[in-house]
Specification:
Length: about 170
């Protein structure tokens, strides 16, 4: 199964500001976010991302699979296609494949990206670099012990200030 990370970052590599408010994201990021979610029909995220998006801004409504990594698996999901799980990345991928998915997109956050990269399951990383700097915030990856080699496959200027970097994951050293 193909796993893609699709995230917006500040120019200094933060995926969220200290307020956890996505008011810094461009319209172009939002359009790409919806497009890749609709294409894959399988979206993986952490609980903080879910809490920010749910229920009104989840990228899939009545179809597809929304997987939320959380320790609170007894909580009530906001819609029927949401799975709250504490399963390993490998098990999540197996569950999505069993449902017929051939690709999935990870839309946040740091712990979720760390877990899937460290498991060697990420094939592509698409970063939308927004024109902002955060002194405090959430980094793209945390202090996970790995090194990931990337190959740049595409660069797009999305608007006057925002660029999209598309990387293929070459190898992960743990």
């Amino acid at each position: 199964m193909k796993i893609i990370v699709y995230l917006a970052t500040s120019a200094n590599g933060m995926i969220s500001n200290n307020r956890n408010v996505p008011d810094w994201l461009s319209q172009e990021y939002g359009q790409g976010f919806m497009a890749i979610s609709q294409r894959t029909q399988a979206v993986i995220m952490g609980k903080t991302t879910y809490n920010i998006l749910s229920p009104d801004y989840l990228p899939l409504k009545d179809s597809g699979s929304l997987v939320v990594l959380t320790h609170d698996t007894k909580a009530t999901p906001s819609q029927s296609n949401v799975l709250l799980t504490s399963d390993s990345p490998e098990k999540i991928i197996a569950q999505l494949a069993a449902k017929g998915h051939t690709e999935a997109v990870i839309i946040g956050g740091t712990q979720t990206v760390d877990a899937f990269v460290k498991a060697g399951l990420v094939n592509e990383i698409i970063l939308v670099v927004e024109p902002v700097l955060f002194g405090k915030g959430l980094p793209l990856v945390n202090e996970a012990d790995f090194e990931c080699k990337l190959s740049l496959s595409d660069v797009k200027k999305l608007n006057g200030n925002t660029v999209q970097l598309h990387y293929e994951v070459k190898n992960i050293l743990i």
